[in-house]
Amino acid sequence: MRHLPMRVPRVTGRRALGAITAGLLAAGGLGVSAQAAPAAARTPAPAQAPAASDHERLALTPPMGFNNWNSTHCRDEFDESMVKGIADLFVERGLKDAGYEYVNLDDCWALPERDADGLLVPDPERFPNGIKAVADYVHSKGLKFGIYTSAGTKTCSSIGFPGALGHEYSDARQFADWGVDYLKYDNCNNQGVDAKQRYTTMRDALAATGRPIVYSICEWGQNKPWEWAGDLGQLWRTTGDISDSWSSMSSIMKANLALAPYARPGGWNDPDMLEVGNGGMTDTEYRTHFSMWSIMAAPLLIGTDLRTAPESAFEILTNDEVIAVDQDPLGKQGEVVSSRDGRWVVSKEMADGSRAVALFNESSRAQRIETTTKAVGLPKARGYTMRDLWKHSDTNTTGTIAATVPAHGTVLLRVEADRKWAQHPPALDVAADGGAVTEAGRTERITSEVTDLGGTAAHSVRVALTGPEGWRITPRSATSARALKPGGTLATDWDVTVPAGTSAGDRDLTLTVEHRARSGTWLTSTAPVTVRVGVPLPAGESALSDADPLSASNGWGPVERDRSVGESGAGDGGPITIGGATFSKGLGVHAPSSVEYYLGGACTTVTARAGVDDESGDRGSVVFEVWADGTRAASTGTVTHADAARALSADVSGADVVRLVVTDAGDGMDYDHADWADLRVTCA
Ligand code: GLA
Predict the structure, then answer these.
(1) DSSP state, residue 426
(2) Residue 315 Cα, ligand 1 centroid: separation in angstroms?
(3) CA-CA 20 to 30 A from 604: which of 171, 193, 206, 592?
(4) What is the pLDDT of residue 658?
(5) How far is 203 from 198, CA to CA, in rounded Å?
(6) How many whole angstroms separate alpha carbon 56 and alpha carbon 351?
(7) CA-CA distance, 639 to 672, in Å (whole number)?
(8) Could you report the average pLDDT of every consecutive run of 10 residues in the chain (684 residues)?
């Protein structure tokens, strides 16, 4: 969430939420390993969910719909015509058919003051015909309507619209009279009243209306709602607010993954609304967002203004095979099967006995991710059908599930032990030893391997490796095989020459494999191969902020050179200032952050004066870490807004890459503006 005054007309200075972001990008998120219990092995299919209560029946599958918050916050475009426009598009663009049902209003729909009778008053500028008229319109389209308020004296916007604390029964009555079908009940300005008590009172008030209303408990995971909120509502937020950035989305995802045992039909973990289409992530990242929300059986509330959203957002949001994973009637949340070096395997048991399997690559380079049908909980069988839910195609495997997944990407599969497996072409595991760090002008040897994972042969296999313009790529061994038997491999050596003058950064080559199906048609699969190009640093001591990084990621806005982070565009921060001292050189970042530089084994020390930027005010706490290849070479421990800049010195002798990591110190990323002031490197 924002930590500085927002630059929007209606809202300034949003308060912090004290978000809980448990699954931090600890140690850069990578290199951490966790081994969770495999999803229950050998469960006979089909499985059935237990009988539901009336309360649970309100959301037997995770609610799907729209909420304006992520795209508009309190800006003027949030009004009656937007809400009607979304309802229209739900019908016209097939979203209603895909299962999206609720059209929900978030904060800022009301006037700041109640009327003389203590009733809520819709903002006449935004909703000139009142709320009932909008609800009626939404209903006329065969959709349902939702609204928002807070379990406090005021809502979360700093303007402070009326909250329902002490007005629960009359507010609930008003909502029911307007035809509200869904209430999101927030947590701001709660006056310290016990959460369970506040959320129970509104549950009772909703029940007293006699109208079935889905009850969305939004207390940001502060009081472990997964342990008690299922008795009150149908979904509960598990974390602080999502933002439209990779680090926000992925850290929330990781926190929510840990809560799998608590999800069930009628009661869902809510990792917050979707950002798909809002522009702050790539389509690969948005597909990961949507895949992972679906395998986590998360509520799917579209958070983009569909009237202006790009076509790619519609393609992602209406992928019905992915939605079917989310909406599976068994109602299980996918469990982490394994997680190591940013390679995540998550498996979700489905009602028909199949497993949805996500191979999620958290790292910033293409990586091969492997698991087995046994590890994801499938029964023993001779063969399995493996359906790729983004490519919409089937292959067969005898037990290995593997794919090379692009940086920040997810391969989402549905795997089942069925009799028809042998009718599908064999799955080909296409991989290469990418991730090498090299320099412009150098030639690297890369070996690719194409392995038949299926129980049937692959015929007329041929492989090609292509790169960006100007790259010379020459095969040094066979690039084709007449046939690959089950388990057989075609290995090919390639010489890859990076053109002179190539700037620092990761580049993806593409490995393309073709083989002929029994029907005679050619099948093509591709895999990315990441090559990291570094530029040597100058000899002697220099400022790292003058060099181009290999990679950079940030919690809010871009990483800034010689300035602090301003949270949105490049260059929007201020001078780097810690404890009243200003520094002309350094990096301004926002936790969670990771910035990598190429050292090429030629450097000895990295030094900095690290601290929380003064612009964070009296908030913000972070940890700075320096990693030399895979080893942590220095750490500050927790540094807060109250601390002066802390001197940091790391021995990076012999390392190829240095990684500068800032974590949120375990208390959420709010206000975590972190400065690597006076960041210097010494090289030979
Ligand atoms: C809180 C919630 C958000 C949104 C805003 C509105 O931050 O967590 O989802 O509803 O309030 O002010």
Answers:
(1) B
(2) 27
(3) 592
(4) 98
(5) 9
(6) 18
(7) 10
(8) 32 28 29 36 56 91 98 97 98 98 98 98 98 98 98 95 98 98 98 98 98 98 97 97 91 96 98 97 98 99 98 98 98 97 96 98 94 98 98 98 97 98 97 86 96 98 97 98 98 97 94 94 94 96 97 89 89 95 98 95 98 95 96 97 97 97 89 97 97
79, 106, 171, 186: the catalytic one is 186
Nearest CA to ligand 1 atom 9: 241
Evaluate: CB of 219 within 6 angstroms of ligand 1.
no
- Contacts of residue 663, defined as CB under 8 A and 6 or more positions apart, other chains included, come to 24, 25, 26, 27, 591, 592, 622, 623, 625
User: What pLDDT score does 73 carry?
Assistant: 96
3-state SS of 57-123 is HCCCCCCEEEECHHHHCCCCCCCHHHHHHHHHHHHHCCHHHHCCCEEECCCCCECCCCCCCCCCCEC
Burial of 113 (0-12, 13-18, 19+ CB in 10 A): exposed
Q: Is 418 a catalytic residue?
A: no
CB-based contact 160:112 (threshold 8 Å): yes
Cβ-Cβ contacts under 8 Å for 78 (sequence gap 6 or more): 68, 72, 105, 106, 108, 109, 126
Structural domains in the chain, sorted by start: 18-27+62-326 (3.20.20.70), 335-424 (2.60.40.1180), 429-534 (2.60.40.10), 540-683 (2.60.120.1060)
In this prediction, residue 604 carries a pLDDT of 98
Give the pLDDT of residue 12.
26
Contact 671, 564 (CB under 8 A): no
> Taken in order 91, 97, 101, 106, is the CA torsion positive or negative?
negative
Question: CA–CA separation, 633 vs 628, rounded Å?
Answer: 6
186 is catalytic: yes
Cα(241) to centroid(ligand 1), Å: 7
Q: How far is the CA of 258 from the centre of ligand 1 (A)?
A: 23
Q: What is the spatial distance between Cα 75 and Cα 79, in angstroms, rounded to a whole number?
A: 9
Q: Are 545 and 584 in contact (CB under 8 A)?
A: no
Grouping H, G, I as helix, E, B as strand and the rest as coil, residue 250 is: helix
What is the structure's pLDDT at 614?
97
422, two tokens = 């042998």
192 within 8 A of 228, measured Cβ to Cβ: no
With a CB cutoff of 8 Å and minimum separation 6, the contacts of 627 are: 27, 28, 633, 658, 659, 660, 661
Contact 163, 150 (CB under 8 A): yes
**Strands ordered across the beta sheet of 300-302:** 268-270, 235-237, 214-217, 182-186, 144-150, 102-104, 64-67, 300-302
402 contacts 527 by C-beta, under 8 angstroms: no
Backbone angles phi and psi of 508, in degrees to 5: -100, 130
